[in-house]
Amino acid sequence: MTYSKWAVVLASVLFFSLVMADHFSSETFAYNAGKGGDTILLRLDDVSGGGCGAPS
Question: How confident is the model at residue 1, as a pLDDT?
Fold first, then answer.
C-alpha cells in the first residue's frame, strides 16, 4: 500500500498544528513569553533550596 504525497503532507501539517496549539496554550509558554503569572515553575523556585549542600 502506498500513500500519496499530499496525504502525508496533510497528516504532517495536522499533527504539527495540534502540537503547536497545545504548546501555545501551556503555562510554560506563557511564562517564557512574559505573560505568565504564578506558575508551577515559580512555585518550585520558591520552595527549592540549594542542591547537594550548596547555599541557597
Answer: 76
Mean pLDDT score, 13-21: 95
Q: Which residues of 32-42 are buried (b: 16+ CB within 10 A; e: fewer)?
A: eeeebeeeeee
Q: Which residue type, as a one-letter code, is found at position 47? A: V
Query: Within 10 Å of residue 54's Cβ, how many Cβ atoms?
Result: 7
pTM of the predicted structure, to 2 decimals: 0.54
Q: What is the Cα–Cα distance from 21 to 29, expressed in whole angstroms?
A: 11
Written as one letter, the residue type at 10 is L
Cell numbers that stand for 12 in this block: 504532517
